[in-house]
Amino acid sequence: MAEFLKSRFGVVFILFFIVALTIVGRLFYLQIIKGQHYREISDRNYMRIFVTNPPRGRIYDRNGVLLAYDVPTFQLVCLPYIVKKNYKIEDFKKHMKDLLNIELTDKQVEIIQKNLYPQLVIQKSLSTQQMKTFWNYSYLFNGVYIDVVPKRVYTPEANYLPHVIGYVGYPSEKELQKNPDLNMNMLVGKAGVEKIFDSILRGKPGKRAVLVDAMGRQKKILWEEEPEKGNDVYLTIDIRLQKIAYESFVQSGNPSGAVVIVDPNSYEILTLLSYPTYDLQKFYEGMTKEEWQNLTSNIYKPLLNKVFSGLYPPGSIYKPLVSIAALEEGVLTPQTRILSRGEFNIGKYVYRNWDKRGCGYIDVSQALEMSCDTFYYQIGLKLGVDNIVKYTRGFGIGEKLNPDIESKTAIVPDRQWKRKVIKTGWFHGDTVNLSIGQGYIAITPFEATKIILPIINGGYVLKPNLLKAYFDNKTQKLIHSQREVIRRYNFKSYNVEAVKYGMYRVVYGPNGTAKVMATVPIKNAGKTGTAQVYSYMTRQKKHHRWELRDHGWFIDFAPYDQPKIAMAVFVEHGESGGKVAAPIAASILRKAYYEKILEE
Amino acid sequence: MVKEILSFREYDRFVLFITVFLLLWSVVNIYSASFHEFSSLYIKQIVFVSISLLIILFLPKLVDYRKILELSLLLYITGIILLIAVKIFGTTVLGAKRWINLGFFQLQPSEVMKVITIITTAHILSKLELPLSLKDFFKVMFLTAIPFILIKTQPDLGSAVLILLPVLFMVFFAGFKSKYILIFNTLFLMSMPIVWHFLEDYQKNRIIAFLNPDAYSKEFAYQIIQSVIAVGSGQLTGKGFLEGSQSKYYFLPEQHTDFIFATIGEEWGFVVSAGLVLIYFFLSIKILYTGYRLTDIGGKFVCYGIGSLIGSQAFINIAMNIGLFPVVGVPLPFLSYGGTALMVFSVMMAMYQNIYIIDKKTKFKLSHSEVEKY
Fold first, then answer.
1. Does B246 reach chain A within 8 Å, measured CB to CB?
2. CA distance A224 to A139
3. Which of A33, A306, A330, B44 has a 20 to 30 A CA-CA distance from B256?
4. Cβ contact (<8 Å) for A8 and B173?
5. Is the CB of residue B308 less than 8 Å away from at least one CB of chain A?
6. pLDDT computed for residue A187 by the predictor
7. Are residues A466 and A446 in contact, defined by beta-carbon separation less than 8 angstroms?
8. Residue ranges in A402-462 assigned as alpha helix (H)
9. For position B367, what pLDDT does the model report?
10. Which of B165, B250, B254, B293 should one mutate to test binding to chain A, selecting the residue with the greatest count of A CBs within 10 A?
11. Which residue, A262, A250, A244, A162, is CA-closest to A571?
């Protein structure tokens, strides 16, 4: 044995033996000791999770009229690292141009050459011809594939309420970080109903674990989680009423304004018009630079949802609220008559009535009928700013009764607010101004409905609602939204009646400020408002300029005895509530009646 | 007559069994490594294996290795001409010119040169006085240096090394003095920086990648990392035939040629892959042992050459598959896809069997003690 080991054959034998042993040792280490570790790596190596995005839920109005839905579109996508590996960029460009008629942009070429992204969308919404050609010549396009992506389509009806519908888009970095359920290729709501009810509409992306090769080609599906379609949503909007509101506003010839119609008993929003509107589909799919500039530089601000985001002084439409506050606080009774002259003096300051002839000895109903400012100066002072503010806030003005849909709320000035913002104390003059809805107060057109709601619905302050119901795909049931009471007033019925009667006289009284409403075949009641934007003196000088004119307001409810709708019409710089805003409301009510949407 | 042809009693049946087994098994593994590409490589492999089996089973009875040794000069010149031809007419694959396209067959002259170098060296050693003197050593090394350089500049470092290695083993067996071996080893180690200088960039990168795989994860170490993952993920009993995901989904490049061992490791696991290492160990040792026992000096050195070539090539290939050796283009004997290599190894095995048979027939043996010194 010793001799054998000394021989050269022995030396080689030992050398080979050591090498073989080392290799077996290494195999033992890799396969037995670290085997589990490498098995996991190899599993990860070839498994990819692909996400399939479901179609978004549809949006309907309360009667099932379709407003928004999804259609599949096909886009051409490439994997830059594979394209780069397989083709010269010139050849690839040429194939794209010659066969598919797609001109690659310099940016796209750069992305492919530098392999900047794992995926690159070459063209969205392919034509049928392009898809056919692609399938036939797919061997020329290694690393290119067709991807199905949902596209949102808005029906022509949706164009009556673009601000309500909002729009969809791809999630931002921030949104992606915040919500792990989202992914880059998913459409999410960016504004309006699309955003508010996004979690209902969105659905759940499906996941597919796929075996892939090193080139990213799919070989075999390991497991699959079906995507869950988004739930269909039924808005409280009545598209017929919305259309009527839109058409009435257009016919009035006013360039800018808003109309809100709600059900006072449930606070369901039936109509929500911000005018001017814009083309929803175009806006979502992308506009030309010129079109976009036209939209953004338009002085009537079509992109702004004035209903929730515009703040304007309410003017006289505020008076019903002050009236009920004064009645309830015992400042006066329905029978109390107050001498209301053409002007009212506090020290050296003179506060005028809009009609300098004055109103005479009048009760609260007459004061509403004539919109008598000097009457309200007096009861406002007796009531005091704190009480006015208490009722204002109590009615939900300056409060997001539904934070999901209300983006801005009123500025309700009180002592504290004035000290903080204006940095002076509260004067009687401020109370006088506030009592006729002037001065610092500013509300959104939507909040105009809050002024009359508790008066006509039995004292309820409700949560406004845009969602009537949604169809839950999981349970296959229609889930209805419930009426939510936020608080309730126990107004004395004779006080309520006095205010309602006052608003009735606005329409039907001999001195009513909205007599045009009497032409409507439904018994209704309302209140006009003409809100001063600039002082009388300034206006005199530049009367012709649109943006210096007064705002026109009109709030209304109908039918008078059992209100089914409450309405607020706002005409930006419309000059007069009675002459401009009220005719629009009249037109809406009339049409609604003839189309049998609203009956006595 | 037919009975005589089909009788393999005189063969080294241990070696014959292993070779035939490896050849048949190669079809199975190449099928597994390439079926997912809808490739017909395994059918070509079946053809090659069939020819190989014919060569191994019947050639040993038809020729006499001693006559072939006499032809070694002619063979050597032919080999060199082929190597020069490949430089001129060769097909370029991945930047290297290694093949001559014969239409039906891609000839790889470097593989052919492996057997020719062994034959030539064995022939010369049989003519020289042993133990080998320093002068004779240089003669032998000069003859090897020509093909070595030609192949190294193809560039194909792996094949070049495997031209050189068997010769070094043969020189060692020829009793070349230990002190010279020590000196040359030292010189070789000291010249490493100069050798490094002569390496191609990709070869340098592969060596760097081998030494530090994580740093080169994307490019050069990709093969090593993927191959190690493949082998390791095989665990004790493997993922099963055709179930290897590493080799199936293109993570492993060259999985049917240089990296066939990774496929085997992944699909068959530790038991089979370690067994395979032992098979190569016993195969090469058995051939070397035959050489050790042999009286005819020419045959003896042919066996030394073949045994050390199979052993070192198999071990280098496997070591390369499991991250123990830099990636040099070395196929696994009998198992890797490649027509020329398969033919050449078959010819070597036929020659070995021929030597074994003739030795048995002459029945003239020297006692162990007399041969031992070589």
1. yes
2. 28
3. A33
4. yes
5. yes
6. 86
7. no
8. 415-421, 428-435, 445-456
9. 47
10. B250
11. A250
pLDDT tier for residue A216 given thresholds of 50, 70 and 90: low
Domain A50-235 classification at class level: alpha beta
CA–CA separation, A314 vs B59, rounded Å? 111
DSSP B237-277: T-S-TT--HHHHTTSSTTTTTTTHHHHHHHHHHHHHHHHHH
Question: Nearest CA to CA, how far is B315 from chain A (Å)?
Answer: 7
Task: Tokens for A228, please give them.
Answer: 């869950």
Candidates B230, B236, B315; nearest CB to A42 = B230
The domains of chain A are located at: 50-235, 310-552
Neighbours of A91 (CB within 10 A): 11
For the cut 80, the answer to whether the pLDDT of residue A21 exceeds it is yes
| Interface check B366 vs A, CB under 8 A | no
DSSP string for B140-165: HHHHHHHHHHHHHTTT-HHHHHHHHH
How far apart are the CA of B244 and the nearest CA of chain A, in angstroms?
A: 9
Say how many residues make up chain A. Answer: 600
**Positive/negative CA dihedral, A307, A466, A590, A514:** negative
The rounded radius of gyration (Å) of the Cα atoms in chain A is 34
DSSP string across A217-263: -EEEEEEEEPPBPPPEEEES--HHHHHHHHHHHHHHT-SSEEEEEEE
**Which comes out higher in pLDDT, residue B211 or A498?**
A498
- What is d(CA A584, CA A591) in angstroms, rounded to the nearest whole number? 11
Helices B134-152, B109-127: inter-axial angle, 10-degree rounding: 170
Region of residue A509 (phi > 0: left; psi between -120 and 50: alpha; otherwise: beta)? beta
- CB neighbour list of residue B3: distance below 8 Å, 6 or more residues apart: none
Size of the A and B interface in Cβ pairs below 8 Å: 128
Q: Indicate the residue of A12, A19, A34 with minimum beta-carbon distance to B288.
A: A12
A220 in contact with B, Cβ within 8 Å = no
Higher pLDDT, A215 or B190: B190
Q: Fold identical between A50-235 and A310-552?
A: no
Whether the complex's predicted ipTM is more than 0.85 is answered with: yes
Q: What is the helix, strand, coil percentage profile of chain A, to 5?
A: 45, 25, 35
Read off the pLDDT of each residue in A79-85 and give the average, rounded to a whole number.
Answer: 74
The answer to whether the CB of B76 falls within 8 A of the CB of B116 is yes
Say yes or no for a CB contact (<8 Å) between A23 and B277: yes
Q: How far is A39 from chain B (nearest CA, A)?
A: 4
- With 0-12 / 13-18 / 19 or more C-beta atoms within 10 angstroms meaning exposed / middle / buried, residue A528 is buried
The span from the CA of A563 to the CA of A586, in Å, is: 16
Q: Which residues contact A131 (CB under 8 A, 6 or more apart)?
A: A74, A146
Query: Which of B167, B231, B249 is best to mutate for the A interface (most A CBs within 10 A)?
Result: B249
Strand-pairing partners, residue B272, are none
Mean pLDDT score of chain A, rounded to an integer? Answer: 88
Q: A310-552: which CATH number, 3.40.50.300, 3.40.190.10, 3.40.710.10, 3.40.47.10?
A: 3.40.710.10
Per the listing, tokens 């395979």 go with B276
Q: Which of B36, B245, B269 sits opposite A42 (nearest CB)?
A: B245
Tell me what pLDDT residue B337 has.
Answer: 86
Q: Is A211 in contact with B322 (Cβ distance < 8 A)?
A: no
Question: A395-420 pLDDT, tens per residue?
Answer: 999 999 999 999 888 999 999 999 99
- Choose among B172, B235, B318: nearest Cβ to A31: B235
Task: Give the minimum alpha-carbon distance from A282 to chain B in angstroms, rounded to a whole number.
Answer: 45
Cβ count within 10 A of residue A286: 9
The answer to whether the Cβ–Cβ distance between B232 and A45 falls below 8 Å is no
Q: Both tokens of residue A459? A: 């004292």
Q: Does A34 touch chain B (CB under 8 A)?
A: yes
